[in-house]
UniProtKB/TrEMBL annotation:
Name listed for the protein in its UniProt record: DNA starvation/stationary phase protection protein
Superkingdom of origin organism: Bacteria
InterPro entries per UniProt: DPS_DNA-bd (IPR002177), DPS_DNA-bd_CS (IPR023188), Ferritin-like (IPR012347), Ferritin-like_SF (IPR009078), Ferritin_DPS_dom (IPR008331)
Pfam families in the record: Ferritin
Gene3D superfamilies: 1.20.1260.10
Source taxonomy: Bacteria, Bacillati, Bacillota, Bacilli, Bacillales
Organism listed in the record: Halolactibacillus alkaliphilus
Gene Ontology MF terms in the entry: ferric iron binding; oxidoreductase activity, acting on metal ions
Boundaries of every Ferritin/DPS domain copy: 6-146
Protein family membership: Belongs to the Dps family.
Length: 146
């Protein structure tokens, strides 16, 4: 159970950083696709925010203690952030989101495995649902790039 708690907490931390990072893209994206991507990044951080809360509350429900500080999120997140200094092409931002979603999916796959081992169907279901949604976004982002 400890392993499952730790993994859910890692998912919480990753979403915490992802939420901020998507705001960075939302604020700084430039170029002819500004309106499309500005809006898409907002849609994505809204979903990430909802899942961030969902996973933290699931962890509480099963007796765990979600991280609740920015320092903890940064320390335990699977994805890394960086300050926006030089102009980043819009396409690079989309590629970054794709790479970050891939890491978030890996977190969720581990969560599915551990929840399965613990016989926790609800947590497993939560992980599967979010993974399915992220993978759909990844397909769309990849088609955007193609
Ligand atoms: Fe905004």
């Amino acid at each position: 159970m400890k392993q499952l708690h730790d993994q859910l907490n890692k998912i919480v931390a990753t979403q915490g950083v992802l939420f901020t990072k998507l705001h960075q893209h939302h604020w700084y994206v430039k170029g002819p696709n500004f309106f499309t991507l500005h809006e898409k990044f907002e849609e994505l951080y809204d979903e990430v925010n909802a899942q961030f809360d969902e996973f933290a509350e699931r962890l509480l429900t099963i007796g765990g203690h979600p991280y609740s500080t920015l320092a903890e999120f940064i320390e335990h997140s699977s994805i890394k952030e960086a300050p926006y200094t030089d102009k980043v092409p819009a396409e690079e931002m989309v590629k970054t989101v794709l790479a970050d979603f891939e890491l978030a999916v890996k977190d969720l796959e581990k969560g599915i495995e551990l929840a399965g081992e613990a016989g926790d169907d609800d947590t497993e279901d939560l992980c599967i649902g979010y993974k399915t949604s992220l993978e759909k976004h990844m397909w769309m982002l990849q088609y955007y790039l193609d």
